[in-house]
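Regression test attached.
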Amino acid sequence: MIRNLIFLLVIFLGTPGFSQVQINYRTDNIPAELKNRANAVIRNMETTVDMRSPENVIITVKKVMTIFNDNGNKKGALVLFYDKNTAIKSVRGQTFNSFGMATGKFSLSDFIDQSAVDDGTLYGDYRVKAYLFNPISYPYTISYEYEIRNKQNLVIPDWYTNPDADVSVEKSSYTFISKPEDKVRIKEYNFKGNPEILKSEKFSSYTWKVQNISAYKPEPYAPVEDKYLAHVKIAPEQFTYYGHKGSYTNWEELGKWFYNDLIKTRQKLSPQTIQEVTELVKGISDDKEKARKIYDYVQKKTRYISVQIGIGGFQPFEAEEVHRSGYGDCKGLVNYTQSLLKAAGINSYYCLVYGSRTKQSFEPDFANIEGNHIILCIPSKTDTTWLECTSQESPFGYLGGFTDDRTVLACTENGGILLKTPTLTTQQNLLKRNAELTIDQEGNVTGKIKTDFSGSQYDNYAYLTHKSYTDQLKALKDEYDIDNINFSDFKLVQKKDDNPKATETVNLSIQKFASKTSSRVYLVPNAFNKSGTISELKNRTLPLYINRGYTDEDEIIYTIPEGYTIEIKPKDQEIRSPFGIYAVSIKQNGSKLYYTRKISINQGTYAPEKYAEYATFINRINQADHDKIVFKLN
Amino acid sequence: MKQFLLLFSILLSTVTLNAQDFEYGQITNDELALKNARPDSNANAIVTREFGTTKMKVDYDAGLQFMEFQYHVRIKIFNKNGYKHGTITIPLSVSGAGNETLINLKATTINYINGVQTKTILDNKDTFTEKSSKNQSLIKFTMPNLNEGSIIEYSYTLQSPYVFNFRGWQFQSAIPKLHSEYIAYIPATFNYNAILRGKQKLTYENAEVNKACYNVNHTVIDCSKMTYIMKDVPAFIEEAYMTAPRNFISAIHYELADHIGTDGLKTKITRSWNDLDRDLIKHQDFGQQIKKKEVFKDLIPGIIKNSETSLDKAKAIYAYIAKNIKHNFYTGIYSSGIKKSFEQHSGSTGDINISLIAALSAAGLDAEALILSTRSNGTLNNLYPILTEFDYIVAKVNIADQCYLLDASQPFLPFGLLPLECINGKGRVINLTKPSYWYDLKASQKESTNYMLNATLDADGKIKGTLTTYSSGYAALDKRIQISKSTSTDDFVEKLDERMTGMTITDHKIENLDSLDQPVIETYEIEMNAFDHMDQEQLFYNPFIISRITTNPFNLNERTYPVDLGSASESRIMINIKMPENFTLADKPQDVVISLPNSGGKYATAIALNNNFLSVSQILQMNRSMYAPEEYLSLKEFYSRIVQLQKTDILLKTK
């Protein structure tokens, strides 16, 4: 992954004033609407980004915040990230009780200092200093100011008016200062109003101000936060980054700089390596087949290891270095694969992307350095191929749910291009299960299951692939969380062609699956695939967002023992809604009982008021999934 | 023939006594051919051989003693899931007292491609040092060129100035080991207590004198050479509901008992409880802090002015300390100064609970310190008094014939209840004037929840009524913590309402949130849809509407380690529903009493329809917090029967 940029994007704010009593910090002065639903309130915050030169960007933050309870206390924490390019110049702060009386002071020496490298990274050079106040009572007020110096201006932190859920904002402002001759592009999102602009001979400045923003509550099935939070993005035209200089005003120029400055020089292969590639694809004429061969070679040879050193995590390791060590991060592995493809005469694109299960795209109308992951694209007029190079298991051409259906930036020698990765549709994301189960007189069940997983569901079982057989059987007990279930003869077959499919076959037994009383037997025919419930929100404010569609089709054929007569059976039903379809039916034919269930959910964004309808739809499915058949014993 | 026999016996003796490092890079045919079958076919990787040794050395130039630990291991990687064992992190302690250093790091990946051996040596520049926190650096590297079937090998030497912490050894890890060997050279001037933990047995153990191994101030000192070998060690697999893994991992630990300094004087570190008592009482950060009653002397009259009995006084002081000194997330048995921590309103468990002991004593109450080892820290050994095994301190106050254990550092704990984390075997009571003694740590209350639903089934198929929940003991603690995570109680109830689909909360009341000695009482007016329409001849209804158990927490087929549920628990559910007059109960789940062996627990139900009142009562008791691995299958069966029973319905018929 690219070095996590989030820390650069999150800003904390404050106000000055270090006297003993601050009348205006009295907590009873806070307007009621700002206390509602809030764990904390930002009383005043002033963020200033002063771009004195491309190598010298000073960020100062002054912030006063009142914390109401323990949950809010984490929001009062002051967390400052730094690295070779980012220096913490000064910090000071003070705490006040609810009457505005000063209770203590703190400075940088009170901070803990530790590595900010995440667990998935072998090495990175970024660190964090953090301070968390430990109050004896609430509410209390914390006030601090700090200054950070960035030795680059490629990444200017985004400013959010109210970045945190459950925190309200009394006053906050953001000022961006640059030289009059500096050209910058600015874009506001979800922001009402205009900045104050000041221009003089020495500087120009832009100031955005907000006040009295109530706390918002996080809501499930909401779009990504950038879709609804007000924020401002700034991108200077001329920039410096770790000694690299450049300029851009659009994606084309940014992509061009990125490729020519950071990537192109890292692709040199030794003659032996080139020879190896030539040998590898010898006799293959079709480019796609060549690429398949090379991808397979990379998957066998390399593994994902994240090491972040040097230029802010944007520049890949040398291709030859990855060849030698057999490992790399997403940049290194994509760059390596691209270099090998080039040696075989195949053109490909190094693509920046937001990798996450929740889809997030690059904005066509505002070029800015973004994303957290790299993938590779082999362009073709009719048959473009996308490759995930960090996986040793992905089928050739399969991206999966981590990078599907979103706009990415392809960095090429001739310029950046925005491309869209393929969409996995509701129909493609298919789980299809057939089971044959026999119930005995005691209610015990034995039988077998066959399940196909495709589309985004292809990798549902990916984590099982290299587990030992015993561990696979153990893991299945969690997958099929049924009391007293036991498995045997488990097989997982992966068909890695253009439409990848994983097929599970397994035999199983479940003791006392059907529950007996003296005269009756109860059976929930939907043995394996029950939908959960979702919260029925009272006041939905955000749009309803369904990230990815899918289809599940289950069929179970039960053989029931003699003497079981159906007394009650759930009614067959089909529930249609704008969000999808659910259909369930039970048919009997002699001793055979046919249970079928089909659910298909569509992706999409809907108005907030549609949420209630969606919750009803999902919760009705949950009910139907738990319906029971009651048998009378003869 | 004679020669042959001689040779044979020499070979034999080297097999048993060949306790020494193995040769770097010399892969044996056995290792080459090794498949993941022995001792554990589930392994993704296996340690084929591992060797470590620790010696005490002297740096004559600097005039310093240091400990030198040499480590050497060879691992076979079977498959891609085993690659993670090719990434290595070695922690080094760094602090004011000195820095540990790593030297002579060597690492090689050995591959066989078409029968040809290739070696890739780790490049120095691919080794990283990360200063992870104030007191720790990490040396990190990952093996180059890993393939399925690769053999990796690395060795290093670690030098440590912490001569009093003799390095221990873990025989067991996340992957199995064929051969794990450790040799400790302990100079005669140092006397350590060695503690062997875990289920696995040593294959070989030997002690011999190693002459003149160590030289301090021109005095030649002998060492005890201790050799330990463990073979065919299975992987350590964590299980759900498990106490601290370190209780079960096979390993050897050392604790310094005494040592003779360079001046020839013997310093006792720990020998007996008497010594330890004396040390603790004299200790600046322990006994000397407990004695500082004067810190609270002037405040006490104000704190206890409304208290009549000793118990009331103790409660008032407990509440005062809990309110006025907040926990700063550090634990430990010491206080760096109770006065300072009281002034700053912030402190470690040590600061807070030593303050509590001092304050209780200042009020004339009989208060003692109780030190213990938390669950995650592991079980105390029974052989020697080892101070570093203790990681937590609480106050013990004795009033009349009653003892109360108090922890003022954790929020929402009622007087006399310890956090579950502290309920771990026994603790040692340290008294300033009397010898110390063991004290059994038993939870003073269990986790207990009572539900009562009184409701009416309307003609339109709706159940409306009042659900009252009483949570006490650890259940009350959990509930208070949960509620505190919401912005307000209204917010808590709103989220609860949203989560419970099919049920609506129309009104609510939550009592005793701040009265920690009382149960938390939640009262909800609820409505739920039981039937779409009532005009049917027969109606099936599942009566287990509250806290239904749908999955079995013990669903595996075997268990290696004890099951630890934290505390004993009890849950009672009583439902009374007034039914329309025209119904009879035609079928119902059988009334049962299911018991666990050895009075381990009980589940009982009773369902009846009398005078148009449907009553459903259930009780689930787990009488112990700990169950032996042999009891696992009983637990599984116990829960399985509950799950089955709760799947069945009642059948109502119209008269």
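Expected vs. actual: identical. The first helix of chain A runs from residue 6 to 9.
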